[in-house]
Queue: 4 jobs
Job 1
Amino acid sequence: MRAVILAGGKGTRLKPYTTSLPKPLMPINGELPILEIVLKQLKRDGFTRVTLAVSHLAEIIMAFCADGRKWGLAIDYSMEKAPLSTIGPLTLIEDLPEYFLLMNGDILTDLRFNALVEAHVQSGADVTVGTFKRSVKMDFGVIEYADRCICTFQEKPVYHFDVSMGIYVINRKVIDALQKNQPYGFDNLMLDGIKNGMNMRAFPYDGFWLDIGRPDDYDLANEQYESLKDRFL
């Protein structure tokens, strides 16, 4: 049970807070950093080893997490010297297992990570993506027209999308096929995988999920954490 956590982002959407503090160490409700919550959840779900892919303010993350023994985990680090996007950093890790959990370091969720891994193994997929249904409200009246003749109008409609949770299970062979130490994002993986007929499956989840890298989600996490923290830990 191996997990890789992407913890190298600059957290530009949360500036100025992330100017001197890495995004994964942002505290939730003034209590635990989001990364510590994730590490405790991984331990709870049976993971024993975690690799942190770090870059921006890496020394702070490494000082905080150390070797992971305070959480009963074995933690090691992969240093990204130049931006490699979401999937590219995995090409720097030499000893990936046959399949592994990959996730962003700024996710607050009550998903059981071992359930995602089990679904991946049972399906025989190459890549499994945790998905969550998000609603997006438009703050404008939306008009559709043809030849400048207005056909439909909706006042501030709400659209529903299935979005990536930033939590995946990936087979090592997928990473072995990539060029080493080159930028390659999750978007590239999805588009190339669809084009090449890769076996990629969705894992829909309807529990709690927030991407605290988004200012609105970070504020919401701070508001709701106290009443929901038993669901996370």
Job 2
Amino acid sequence: MGRVFCLLLSFVVAGCIHSNPVNRLNRAVTVKLVLLRDHVHERVASPVPEVVREEIGRVLKARNLVPEFSDSEMLKKLGSIRDTNTRLRLVAQEMGKEQNGGLVLLIETRASFYSQLSGRYRWSVSASLSLAPADDLDQVHSD
């Protein structure tokens, strides 16, 4: 089902299993969160489903991370750009200098239809996560 499904499944399973307590930061840290779905054949980005946003926001808040979701205007800007580092820079610039110590989390997804066999559709789904301090994008961690 792809990495997006695995990511969502891990969030859901992690929320259902009673294991060790969640590690929380000592102070609240703002996370500028950009969740987008790149279109395969166009340079356009769409928002991910609301249920995904809500679940990721819930997981972040449990760790004392304050999610600040990007707006539709930012998605329009980022849709025409395919380079992750350029996208991170634009998001960090939007945060401004007053958000010193904040983080930028960029989750890029892409789903493409690639075949239909016996009435069944097959999709290829990929996801890329990039996390960096807003004031030092050279320290980006990607998966």
Job 3
Amino acid sequence: MAGFNNVEQMLEKIPGWEDKRSRVTNYEAGISMASPEAILVIAKATGCSPCWLMFETGPIRATGRDKQAIRHQNLVAVVEDAKSHRQLTQLLNALSISRNKLDEYLDNPFFEITDRLARRCEKFIGKRSGWLDEQHIESDPICQSFPDDLRELMSIYSEIGNEEQEKLLKIARIFAEK
């Protein structure tokens, strides 16, 4: 996703790291863990968020949520819901993919979820086109740590239209002024 075909291309972007190929491949393989300083250097070179590099949570891009990361997060939630309702086979049929292919999508947040697959997924779960591309409170692990009432408010906000969102914000601002 950072546009590099291999480790060498990434290392070319990091001055003084030309001889650190084995170190980086050890990070990738989980053999060793990068120091916070190394994470910052790699994050800068790749345009990834340091938080995502360290913990695989939050936005992949330092500048905000990446569409593929959001799609991945939502697909994981859809699959978990389908499993809990014993509808995994129906989901696979609706997506026109095998279980192995689905596992590829689930195991690799960088594996591109195409528009076609996203729209099929949305149709299966009865959501509007574009739903898989949007952040949803119920599928965001960071938001799961928020108090229940805040998550409820965030869920309400994310499900209503733009005009209603503006009204809700106006009401909240009135309370904040008091």
Job 4
Amino acid sequence: MFFVSRPEQFEGFLTARLPDPATGNPDLSKLKAFNDANSDTLLQSAYFASNPVPASYAAVKYWSVNAFEFISAQGQSQLVRWEFVPEKGTLGLTDDEMKSLPTDFLVGEFGNRLEQAPVVFDFKLQLDEKGDTLTDPTKVWPENRLVLPAGKLVIDRTRPSSVCDVITFIPLVLPNGIKPSAGPVWLARSAFCVPSLSRSHRAVSSAGKQP
């Protein structure tokens, strides 16, 4: 699930977590006030708290938090959420295991893993049923929904981060036959992608300039 259900929650979510200059920590009263008024923003953190840190990028499931409309060649429409399931299963870390690992261990682990063999995920589609939310990304669809196999994702190499960092991800750029649902968070996200990339490049450029 996503951490907000409406675009207007973004600012409040971040502001409530800004550190107080006097203590270096968030103001707990402000954080509680926001959480009490926006209980749906606590669902993602509750999920993280109840699940272990992944041991590898290759050993964790990935989901879409928004619904997609798939349209067949005959014009039939079906709302789905997708998921990528690691072919070799999921694997998490204990707190003790985490203590001995560097902060960027996932990057190194994934590169080492690819040197041994490609990483494979099963691509699946979860079909919606009447009553499922199509616009709220904080809500998870029930596990008993029909899930169909749709293909495989095979990763056999990586590229330098310097190459990936200049790519702008626009969520609403989709292939023919797939449309976005009407979720307000999803429809708002594209407006932030290009400015975000532009600002990050300016920040990097400024940091790299000689005085």
